[in-house]
Write a structure and sequence with these properties.
By secondary structure, the protein is α/β, with parallel strands linked by helices. 37% of the residues lie in helices and 15% in strands. Helix 7 (147-162) links the parallel strand 5 (138-143) and strand 6.
Length: 271
């Protein structure tokens, strides 16, 4: 039986779907069998990220409604053996996905994959609540190091606790090492302490990732620090014990310490 991962965020635009896709690719390239479930009903995007948009025939709601069998809806990117996608419905609403049917689908995927990654809708509305069930083994919250996102992430963490799901781990995205060093941006560890979550990984801001998306490439095909960070997170998901780099944690040089402005301390939020 494989592990089911739920990847959520308190708000849109934090890179959740891109991260979910990249982690699926990274795990599959390590010889594991992985299925990404795009559960953002009405706003699917994993098919575009993985480059299979023109091959979608059936979707998650079709399988739930028994309009097709599960294997008919699964799509495999040609250049990534071991990875499949169960796409979201594009012209349906979240309430059209039956909870019991979704649970049944997850059970089937859990039996045939090493990892199942659910790309959840952003926020805490009905779309997310309807996906929660006892089959989910681990949850991940994706957050950027800013006040608004941290507070919204806290709402998601509270909701997961209310539903008695496993306490989530945290991925902090879009870190700028220079801003962290200058005290203008929270470090990933500060965000983790604020939310009282274990840190699964931290990802630096990386222009090459956006360029890869514009070119319809897998971001894991780009050689950059951000992709190395994503691969490190995937290995931790697979059970490897790896140290986490701290982007922006390096001390400033001697000249800056002597003559430059003092670093400002970024205080924790009073959430």
């Amino acid at each position: 039986m494989g592990q089911i991962w739920m990847i959520a965020s308190g708000k849109g635009g934090v890179g959740k779907s891109t991260i979910a896709s990249a982690l699926g690719v990274a795990l599959a390239r390590r010889g594991l069998k992985v299925c990404i479930v795009d559960a953002d009903i009405g706003l699917r995007d994993q098919d575009a990220i993985l480059g299979v948009a023109d091959r979608i025939v059936y979707d998650l709601v079709d399988v739930a409604n028994k309009d097709c069998r599960l294997p008919q809806a699964l799509v495999s990117p040609a250049d990534i053996p071991g990875l499949t996608l169960l796409p979201a419905a594009q012209f349906r609403r979240a309430k059209e996905l039956d909870r019991k049917a979704f649970r049944r689908i997850l059970l089937l995927l859990k039996e045939t994959n090493d990892h199942v990654i659910i790309d959840c809708p952003a926020g805490i509305e009905r779309g997310l609540r309807g996906l929660m069930n006892e089959l989910i083994d681990k949850a991940i919250v994706v957050c950027t190091p800013d006040d608004v996102c941290i507070r919204n992430a806290e709402r998601v963490v509270t909701l997961l606790q209310e539903k008695e799901l496993p306490r989530p781990q945290l991925i902090v995205n879009r870190l700028d090492a220079q801003l962290v060093q200058h005290g203008e941006m929270y470090s990933a560890r500060t965000v983790a302490q604020t939310l009282d979550l274990d840190l699964l990984g931290e990802i630096p801001e990386e222009p090459m990732v956006y360029r890869a998306l514009l070119r319809h490439m897998s971001i894991m095909d780009v050689e950059c620090e951000g992709c190395e960070a994503l691969d490190r997170i995937a290995r931790r998901m697979a059970g490897f014990e790896l140290d986490l780099p701290a982007y922006g944690a390096a001390k400033p040089g001697i000249l800056r310490r002597l003559f430059g402005p003092k670093l400002k301390e970024v205080k924790r939020l009073d959430c």
